[in-house]
Write a structure and sequence with these properties.
By secondary structure, the protein is mostly helical. The protein has helices at residues 2-20, 25-34, 40-50, 57-65, 71-92, 97-116, 133-137, 141-158, 163-172, 178-188, 195-203, 209-232, 236-258.
């Protein structure tokens, strides 16, 4: 039954990965802690290992066919992810699990508030104009590498694929359309960019390859479904539900770390 649970978790993570280009770690790590009783470092290791193979490739193909992926930018981001992953994994080994859990909870709440777009509840702002292809193309390659490095550090530290950092940055600073940002982020994470962190976690005894394999199998099919939904459907309502889930998990993690 445990194996079935990991498969279901992988499918859920894959759907979110395909929808939002976030890699699925944002669901896997809290779920492994809350529902499977793992500590945060074991959960990080399992999540990163599950995303090591190109489990989102079916989703990437669907996005590519829809013309939503910028291949050049995704490759530069992938390079940065690989470089940043090592630093994130090393740093995770040096701080207490209790502090890491609290920091992780704060980040989950911050992400949830962004998904709910809380500032828009209190003020009326002008929406930015959509970027033209020329505006996106003007950015130098090293800016995408820096995005990848930052996302890689985050991924190694918190067991995520880094997409939760990449997608907002592509939208906010590179003026990507949200679906193209999600597609390009998902494509960047298909190379084994988290390998340095996985090696570090494994060397410190935090990796269970069997659990990671079952989750990876679920992600493979979930990402295809999520990407198809992402191409065809608006995701506003789903994002709000997801934000509520993040707030619940963050609250639980703070409570657990203090008990």
């Amino acid at each position: 039954m445990t194996e079935i649970g990991f498969l279901i978790l992988g499918v859920a993570a894959g759907i979110l990965s395909g929808l939002f280009g976030i890699g699925g770690g944002i669901v896997m790590v809290p779920s492994l802690i809350v529902f499977f009783g793992m500590d945060i470092l074991d959960a990080n290791a399992t999540s990163l290992a599950a995303m090591l193979l190109p489990v989102g490739v079916l989703g990437v193909i669907a996005y590519y066919k829809a013309g939503l992926i910028n291949v050049r930018d995704s490759l530069w981001i992938a390079l940065g992810l690989f470089l940043g992953s090592f630093a994130g994994g090393e740093f995770a080994m040096t701080i207490s699990e209790s502090f890491l859990a609290k920091l992780y909870a704060i980040i989950l709440i911050y992400i949830a508030f962004n998904y709910l777009d809380v500032p828009s509840w209190f003020k009326k702002g002008k929406k930015s104009k959509p970027a033209t292809s020329a505006e996106v193309a003007q950015k130098p390659f090293w800016t995408y590498v820096l995005v990848g490095v930052g996302a890689g550090v985050f991924a190694g530290l918190f067991g995520k694929g880094g997409g939760i950092v990449i997608v907002p940055l592509l939208i906010a600073f590179f003026r990507y359309e949200p679906k193209k940002a999600a597609a390009t982020s998902l494509a960047a994470m298909q190379l084994p960019v988290g390998l340095p962190s996985v090696i570090i976690y494994a060397q410190n005894g935090h990796l269970n390859l069997l659990f990671a394999a079952f989750i990876a199998l679920g992600i493979l099919f979930g990402a295809l479904l999520g990407s198809k939904l992402g191409v065809k459907l608006p995701s506003a309502v789903f994002k709000k539900v997801f934000a509520v889930f993040l707030i619940f998990v963050a609250t639980y993690m703070v409570y657990k770390s203090m008990s």
